[in-house]
From TrEMBL:
Superkingdom of origin: Eukaryota
UniProt lineage: Eukaryota, Metazoa, Chordata, Cephalochordata, Leptocardii
Signal peptide region: 1-31
Pfam families from the UniProt entry: fn3 (PF00041)
UniProt keyword annotations, A-Z: Repeat, Signal
Occurrences of domain Fibronectin type-III (ranges): 41-128
UniProt cross-references to PROSITE patterns, sorted A to Z: FN3 (PS50853)
Protein's UniProt name: Fibronectin-like
PANTHER family found in the cross-reference section: FIBRONECTIN TYPE-III DOMAIN-CONTAINING PROTEIN (PTHR46708:SF2), TENASCIN (PTHR46708)
Length: 159
Protein backbone atom coordinates (compact mmCIF):
# COMPACT_ATOMS: atom_id res chain seq x y z
CA UNK A 1 0.00 0.00 0.00
CA UNK A 2 1.22 3.52 -0.84
CA UNK A 3 0.41 6.75 0.99
CA UNK A 4 1.31 10.29 -0.07
CA UNK A 5 1.90 13.52 1.78
CA UNK A 6 1.71 16.79 -0.14
CA UNK A 7 3.46 19.95 1.14
CA UNK A 8 3.63 23.38 -0.46
CA UNK A 9 6.92 25.29 -0.43
CA UNK A 10 7.47 28.79 -1.70
CA UNK A 11 10.95 29.40 -3.07
CA UNK A 12 11.24 33.09 -3.96
CA UNK A 13 8.14 33.65 -6.06
CA UNK A 14 7.86 30.02 -7.22
CA UNK A 15 5.51 27.64 -5.46
CA UNK A 16 6.48 23.97 -5.53
CA UNK A 17 4.67 20.97 -4.13
CA UNK A 18 6.78 18.30 -2.48
CA UNK A 19 5.00 15.01 -2.61
CA UNK A 20 6.34 12.28 -0.35
CA UNK A 21 5.29 8.78 -1.24
CA UNK A 22 5.48 6.18 1.52
CA UNK A 23 5.90 2.84 -0.19
CA UNK A 24 4.98 -0.58 1.14
CA UNK A 25 8.55 -1.41 2.00
CA UNK A 26 8.81 1.85 4.02
CA UNK A 27 10.99 3.61 1.46
CA UNK A 28 10.22 7.28 1.01
CA UNK A 29 10.39 8.73 -2.46
CA UNK A 30 10.17 12.49 -3.04
CA UNK A 31 8.83 14.12 -6.17
CA UNK A 32 8.65 17.85 -6.87
CA UNK A 33 5.76 19.12 -8.94
CA UNK A 34 5.09 22.76 -9.81
CA UNK A 35 2.14 24.39 -8.11
CA UNK A 36 -0.66 25.49 -10.40
CA UNK A 37 0.08 28.87 -11.92
CA UNK A 38 -2.40 31.68 -12.27
CA UNK A 39 -3.31 33.51 -15.44
CA UNK A 40 -1.26 36.45 -16.64
CA UNK A 41 -2.29 39.63 -14.84
CA UNK A 42 -4.72 42.02 -16.52
CA UNK A 43 -3.18 45.15 -18.08
CA UNK A 44 -3.98 48.80 -18.78
CA UNK A 45 -5.71 49.91 -15.56
CA UNK A 46 -7.91 52.96 -16.23
CA UNK A 47 -9.92 55.12 -13.84
CA UNK A 48 -12.91 55.92 -16.07
CA UNK A 49 -15.05 57.74 -13.50
CA UNK A 50 -13.85 59.65 -10.45
CA UNK A 51 -16.30 61.09 -7.93
CA UNK A 52 -16.28 62.12 -4.29
CA UNK A 53 -17.20 58.63 -3.12
CA UNK A 54 -16.68 56.39 -6.17
CA UNK A 55 -13.96 55.18 -8.50
CA UNK A 56 -14.85 53.26 -11.63
CA UNK A 57 -11.97 51.10 -12.84
CA UNK A 58 -11.54 49.22 -16.09
CA UNK A 59 -8.74 47.04 -17.44
CA UNK A 60 -7.72 44.97 -20.41
CA UNK A 61 -8.72 41.39 -19.68
CA UNK A 62 -6.18 38.67 -19.03
CA UNK A 63 -6.03 36.03 -21.75
CA UNK A 64 -7.17 33.20 -19.49
CA UNK A 65 -8.85 34.76 -16.44
CA UNK A 66 -12.46 33.81 -15.91
CA UNK A 67 -13.11 36.29 -13.09
CA UNK A 68 -11.32 39.14 -11.32
CA UNK A 69 -10.79 40.26 -7.74
CA UNK A 70 -10.60 44.00 -7.07
CA UNK A 71 -9.02 45.35 -3.88
CA UNK A 72 -8.54 48.92 -2.69
CA UNK A 73 -7.06 50.76 0.28
CA UNK A 74 -6.21 54.33 1.21
CA UNK A 75 -2.55 55.00 0.39
CA UNK A 76 -0.40 54.64 3.48
CA UNK A 77 -3.30 53.67 5.63
CA UNK A 78 -5.98 51.29 6.58
CA UNK A 79 -6.53 47.68 5.72
CA UNK A 80 -7.18 46.42 2.22
CA UNK A 81 -10.80 45.97 1.25
CA UNK A 82 -11.35 43.02 -1.05
CA UNK A 83 -14.30 42.86 -3.38
CA UNK A 84 -15.69 39.41 -4.06
CA UNK A 85 -14.76 38.01 -7.45
CA UNK A 86 -16.44 39.79 -10.30
CA UNK A 87 -16.84 39.51 -14.03
CA UNK A 88 -17.84 43.20 -14.27
CA UNK A 89 -15.40 45.29 -16.28
CA UNK A 90 -15.57 48.22 -15.65
CA UNK A 91 -16.15 47.84 -11.93
CA UNK A 92 -17.41 50.64 -9.67
CA UNK A 93 -16.00 50.93 -6.15
CA UNK A 94 -18.43 52.82 -3.90
CA UNK A 95 -18.48 54.16 -0.34
CA UNK A 96 -15.11 55.93 -0.58
CA UNK A 97 -14.02 59.08 1.24
CA UNK A 98 -13.82 62.38 -0.65
CA UNK A 99 -10.35 63.78 -1.29
CA UNK A 100 -8.56 60.49 -0.48
CA UNK A 101 -5.85 58.76 -2.53
CA UNK A 102 -6.50 55.02 -3.02
CA UNK A 103 -4.39 52.12 -4.28
CA UNK A 104 -6.48 49.81 -6.45
CA UNK A 105 -5.40 46.30 -7.47
CA UNK A 106 -7.01 43.92 -9.96
CA UNK A 107 -6.16 40.20 -9.98
CA UNK A 108 -7.16 37.73 -12.69
CA UNK A 109 -8.49 34.37 -11.45
CA UNK A 110 -8.42 31.10 -13.36
CA UNK A 111 -9.20 27.69 -11.82
CA UNK A 112 -9.07 29.21 -8.35
CA UNK A 113 -5.53 30.59 -8.79
CA UNK A 114 -4.86 34.34 -8.84
CA UNK A 115 -2.54 36.26 -11.12
CA UNK A 116 -0.18 38.90 -9.89
CA UNK A 117 -1.80 42.31 -9.36
CA UNK A 118 -2.39 45.13 -11.79
CA UNK A 119 -2.04 48.20 -9.56
CA UNK A 120 -2.66 51.93 -9.74
CA UNK A 121 -3.31 54.93 -7.48
CA UNK A 122 -6.16 57.41 -7.90
CA UNK A 123 -7.72 60.00 -5.62
CA UNK A 124 -11.38 60.73 -5.21
CA UNK A 125 -12.49 64.28 -5.91
CA UNK A 126 -13.05 66.69 -3.04
CA UNK A 127 -16.19 68.33 -4.39
CA UNK A 128 -18.89 67.23 -6.84
CA UNK A 129 -19.45 70.80 -7.98
CA UNK A 130 -15.91 72.14 -8.03
CA UNK A 131 -15.76 71.98 -11.81
CA UNK A 132 -18.86 74.24 -11.98
CA UNK A 133 -17.19 77.11 -10.11
CA UNK A 134 -15.56 79.34 -12.68
CA UNK A 135 -12.77 81.68 -11.74
CA UNK A 136 -13.65 85.22 -12.74
CA UNK A 137 -11.48 86.84 -15.34
CA UNK A 138 -9.65 90.09 -14.63
CA UNK A 139 -11.92 91.84 -17.15
CA UNK A 140 -15.09 90.77 -15.33
CA UNK A 141 -13.67 91.84 -11.95
CA UNK A 142 -12.71 95.25 -13.36
CA UNK A 143 -16.17 95.62 -14.92
CA UNK A 144 -17.84 94.95 -11.58
CA UNK A 145 -15.51 97.37 -9.77
CA UNK A 146 -16.13 100.05 -12.42
CA UNK A 147 -19.90 99.57 -12.15
CA UNK A 148 -19.82 99.86 -8.36
CA UNK A 149 -17.61 102.97 -8.62
CA UNK A 150 -19.92 104.63 -11.17
CA UNK A 151 -22.98 103.79 -9.09
CA UNK A 152 -21.33 105.22 -5.97
CA UNK A 153 -20.15 108.32 -7.84
CA UNK A 154 -23.58 109.01 -9.33
CA UNK A 155 -25.20 108.59 -5.93
CA UNK A 156 -22.67 110.93 -4.29
CA UNK A 157 -23.26 113.79 -6.75
CA UNK A 158 -27.01 113.29 -6.87
CA UNK A 159 -27.66 111.63 -10.26
Amino acid sequence: MTSATKMLFVVGRVEVYLVLFQLVNMQTVAAFTPAPTGPPPPTNLQFTTVGTDILEVSWTASSSAATYRVTYEPVGGAETVSVASTTDNPYTITGLTAGTLYTVRVYGISNGVESGPLQGDQGTSECNYCHDIARPSLTSVLFVLESVYRFSLHKAIGF
